[in-house]
């Protein structure tokens, strides 16, 4: 089903720059049937993801000057903060948005570190100041610049747990996972998950089930329910602009209850591990109104 919607790797110098930039930002701030017990039925989850009475436990509209502090950003794995800026939303839909820049020729950190290409996009691991969870709902809005060329693809934020969850490092069930989105050619969307079952790189889930349009705000919602250890009963569901576009059951995220959802992996860049993924021109993406909610 397709929904057409209008609208690190480490060259040490690059890594130090990312962490230093994070420190500067923070310093300058004003300080198949699913069986499980950890979550509820698919129908109830759909209601949880779309109803207005869900229990929001964290949110960010980028209004505060110290918004990164509110995100609980970790220094590990952080880079590209110089490419982010909170600005007024010219469309009037939101008060402020976070604009992320991707300079011409930029792609993934791998490309930057291998051939000196510009660093585009940004990444932070944010624990949000909340306790780890077995299930969470992530909601936010995204708008690609009107002249955005999707090229071959790129990353968008999702949820994460543990420390092995990106950069072609495959988790083993005890040490990590992630559920970032990707845009693909022509704006096709998908979930790009790092799971114990992944091979060499992340697992593509639901590719082409929806399509992003440049210059238009899209509302992304994902509900992630971790599996019970020993059972393949994890789940990912996605809504785009209020329409359900993906349900993926029988997933294994973990082999131990100690591994939980820890927060948001705010990760966005073109790529892909070589320059064929690079943007041919300067573009940007705006992000707005992040929140996480309990799955009842």
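^ structure tokens above, recovered residues below v
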């Amino acid at each position: 089903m397709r929904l057409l919607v209008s609208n690190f790797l480490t060259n040490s110098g690059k890594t130090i720059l990312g962490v230093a930039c994070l420190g500067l930002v923070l310093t300058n701030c004003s300080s198949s049937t699913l069986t499980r017990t950890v979550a509820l039925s698919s129908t109830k989850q759909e209601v949880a993801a779309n109803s207005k009475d869900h229990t929001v436990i964290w949110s960010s509209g980028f209004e505060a000057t110290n918004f990164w502090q509110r995100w609980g950003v970790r220094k590990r794995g952080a880079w590209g903060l110089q490419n982010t800026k909170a600005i007024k939303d010219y469309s009037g839909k939101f008060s402020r948005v976070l604009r992320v820049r991707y300079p011409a020729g930029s792609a993934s950190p791998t490309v930057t570190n291998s051939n000196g290409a510009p660093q585009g996009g940004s990444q932070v691991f944010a624990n949000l100041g909340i306790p780890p969870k077995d299930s969470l709902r992530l909601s936010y809005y995204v708008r690609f610049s009107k002249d955005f060329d999707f090229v071959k693809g790129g990353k968008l934020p999702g949820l994460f747990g543990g420390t092995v969850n990106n950069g072609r490092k495959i988790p083993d069930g005890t040490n990590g996972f992630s559920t970032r989105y990707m845009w693909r050619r022509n704006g096709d969307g998908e979930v790009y998950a790092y799971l114990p079952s992944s091979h060499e790189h992340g697992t593509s889930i639901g590719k082409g089930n929806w399509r992003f349009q440049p210059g238009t705000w899209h509302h992304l919602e994902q509900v992630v329910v971790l599996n019970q250890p020993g059972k393949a009963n994890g789940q990912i569901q996605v809504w785009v602009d209020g329409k359900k576009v993906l349900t993926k059951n029988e997933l294994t995220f973990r082999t131990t209850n100690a591994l939980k959802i820890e927060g948001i992996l705010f990760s966005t860049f073109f790529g892909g591990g070589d320059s064929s993924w690079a943007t041919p021109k300067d573009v940007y993406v705006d992000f707005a109104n992040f929140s996480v909610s309990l799955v009842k």
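The chain has one domain: 3-293.
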